[in-house]
Amino acid sequence: MQPIMKSLRVRLPGVSPAAIGATLATRLLATAMSFAAGVIAARDLGVQGRATFAVMISVPTVLSIVAVLGMDNANARFSGTSHTAFRQIVRWSVAFSLVAGSALAGLWLLLSHLWPVVLLGVPFRLALVAAAMCPVTLLTTLLGTAEIGRGRIKTYNRASTVPAVFHLIGVCGLLAAGSLTPTSCFLSALTGQLLCAGVLLIAATARVHDDGEQVSARTFGSFAIKAYLPNLIHYGMMRLDVPVIQLLAGATAVAMYAVALPLAEAMFLLPTAVALVMFSAVTSGAVDARAAARIARTVLAAAAMAGAVAAAAAPVLIPAIYGRPYSGAVQVIWAMLPGLVLFSTGRSLQAYLSAADLLRPVITATVVGAVVNIVFLGVLTPHYAAVGAGAANSAGYLVFAVLLGRGVRQRVRARPRESAEPVTGEVSAAPARPSLGRLSLKTVGDRWRNAYPRQVRSVPFSGAPVVAAGLLTAAGVGYLAMAYSPAISTFTVLSASGLVVIVLACVLIPDAGLYVLAAAVPLSQSDVGTSLISPRRLVALMLICLLGRVVAGSGIVWPKPTGVLITVGTVGYAAAASALIYDADPQGTGNWQYLLLACAPLLLLPLIIEPGPALDRALLVFCWGSVILAVIEIVQAGSVFAMKGDLTPADTAVLAITQEGAANHNAVGALFVMAAAVLLRRYEAVRKGLPRLATGAGVVVLTLGIAYSLSRAAYLAGIAMIALYAARRSLRGVLALSVGAACLVLLLPAAIAARFDSILGGVPDANSAVRLDLWSSALRMFEAHPLFGVGYLNFADQLPAYYQATGDYEIMFLQFPLLEFAHNTYLTVLSQTGLVGAVGIGAIVVLGVRRAWRAIRSGDPAGEAALLAMVGVGVCSVFGEILLVPPLLAGLLLIILAAKPAPADVPRPVPAPASARASAPVPAGGAR
């Protein structure tokens, strides 16, 4: 036994393994007694009675968690400073429990009069009884954490078993007397809580430390508020998923998820026990950042072993305990286990950071993890039900643990001193605590190296171990899923594993997410990528990119306040107008959600992207992805031209556009125009040789891709872009470009020539006639609602009242519900958002043009590429709403954000030498 304890002391430096074991045993005992009491109550009360009792118990628990406002953490942080501070905290805890607990319970009862559904099916007289428990539960929580703060873990453990013991005794006694009802069962639980509060109040009279200074209310309150948010979000990530799952997947998924929750809570027992013992050790100076990292590794190993046992036992235990209908909960448990194992480690790191008053990493990790959890919950739950919800929890906990690991790692690197050094001047150390003295940086470093021989890289969550853990987790979960669920195919498992690898790479490898995002833009316009890159998945990818910047330590890019206000204000106005103005469709409340998805690149990309070599490389990925797509488009359209049969060239072009599986030709053409703008401007800056030859070939392929896209809007956009490019060059360059274009036109198929002819003149076809009538209808809508428009995506609802057919076609064949836009971005903005929206959109465009023009004047070639791309997209927008396609908007923003007005702050990957720049065919004054 002694060798085991000695090994544990080495692996758990600064804390007592016996105290951790006693805490864990106490919690297991309390959980077992509560489970036994719950089983007895469920069997005797029946389904309805058990549900009523569950609500009566849950309401005070939830209310106390909401009302605690971080005081539990503050009690643990400051109770050990002196006996004077402890007595002060006890008085505050009693007063706060009576006031806040009673107020929140009273608010619940008051709201129940206005909205009876708030009672959750509990009769009002029983709700009064349940409300009485809220101050008591809050008081036991605060007094218990105060005992932890002054190092009395044993006292806390003994007191925490009192409610479970008396509740079990009460339930058994009531059952024997035949008086077990929801009310009597609840009163037995309330009695246990009152006895626990009494025990803790008696224990508070004991003196542990000497008298000293009081705690400043400002310092105490500041720490409490900062610590409140992470704990509240952690509770919500596990418990508040239930209503979301009910909404997105139904009651069956909720049942499976509810069965998996007890195992998840059981996995929390070990990290919670370690955190309770560790908190007071950190505040006393016994545990520093290195020791916390070693403790976290030990907890990770123990949690991994417990998770492996749970994964193997779940297929046997779940059907045996709950019955065969609940076998589906096994997959939910498997999906949750990876995140729970990693969260166990993160919980230990959180205890260290909180006790050391380093709450910024905790808050950041918690908020980002919660956002990831919510996003994945919304994406995965509709498709994979409770299993998707479990995977979403794992994703959120993974992010939380990784960010906390980074926080501790930075703490070790940037602040190599003992974490027990006082962090604020207002809190003095307790006399009973050993003083560390004033240590120099060298002395502290030598002491740490002697005590902990491992290097900084041993801190958990460096890149390679996490990637390896993710791959092993994905492989293990996939194997178990295939072994126990034959319905899950190998392709599904491989796809999920590949997704895990991509997400981990985007999060942990610097700039990897940016490259994936750049590749996703052209992929979204291919036959395969149309369904693969949905707007929701694109938003998820951008959030992952944002997370990757935070994990890499790059931080969020903060745009200028003016641009932020204009962008957020315009999008917010459009969303409000969509939901509130002239919305006759009862299901039109989803319009604003679709609008936010469409505008997500505008809101998120400025926070992710900044000019520099990484963005230059990402633009190359974007351009060459577009070149590959252009080759595919040329081959597909050419095959249709070869099989045209007896069709006229114009009909052949229509056939190529409307063939099954074909992407939106207008969107594809606009994509090629943007990529051509980047490569065309880059061609001048590339040195001679293979790179220059490849860039020129890319421009030619993209030009052919524009021609074969059969998009007349792209034709005009390409002509406008080339005209602007040539206008800034010498006459020799204009002539060479014109001759090359003329030779290229002569080689094009007849179908493409027919599309060109339809632009130059003649009677418009039916599609063009309908488009002209839609334009006039949009103008009439604007005349009727000039200020606010008809609301985003309300165009189709209002169209019948404003439509007038003037072309040679049958109006009866028009499907008005499908005509959601005017096929002209400018008229769409005017008709659906009015002058207010048009001014906002115009201001955003002005910001982009201004950024590009300043970059041009400072000599940045990315500025002209941005200007050319905006001109091309502006022409395409006359004939469609390409910027309402989120991937295309993301591609345009990649190009615009690459332009930097500052002259030489950001190095370019292929800068032109000064001599070459002086002799370039486009001098600075060439535009004159």
Short summary of the structure?
This protein is an all-alpha fold and 928 residues long.
Question: How would the blueprint of this fold be written?
Answer:
Blueprint: H1 2-11, H2 17-67, H3 71-78, H4 83-114, H5 124-149, H6 153-177, H7 182-203, H8 217-239, H9 241-249, H10 251-267, H11 269-283, H12 289-322, H13 329-355, H14 359-414, H15 441-451, H16 463-484, H17 490-508, H18 512-523, H19 529-532, H20 535-552, H21 561-580, H22 591-608, H23 613-642, H24 649-658, H25 665-685, H26 690-708, H27 712-727, H28 731-746, H29 750-760, H30 766-784, H31 795-802, H32 825-857, H33 861-876, H34 886-897, H35 914-918
Can you give a write-up of this model?
This protein has about 950 residues and is an all-alpha fold. Helix content is about 75%, strand content about 0%. The protein contains 35 helices and no strands. The protein has helices at about 1-10, 15-65, 70-80, 85-115, 125-150, 155-175, 180-205, 215-240, 240-250, 250-265, 270-285, 290-320, 330-355, 360-415, 440-450, 465-485, 490-510, 510-525, 530, 535-550, 560-580, 590-610, 615-640, 650-660, 665-685, 690-710, 710-725, 730-745, 750-760, 765-785, 795-800, 825-855, 860-875, 885-895, 915-920. Helix 2 (about 15-65) packs across helix 6 (about 155-175), helix 3 crosses helix 8 and helix 27 runs antiparallel to helix 33. It is elongated, with a radius of gyration of 33 Å.
List keywords for this structure.
single chain; 928 residues; mainly alpha; 35 helices; 75% helix; disordered C terminus
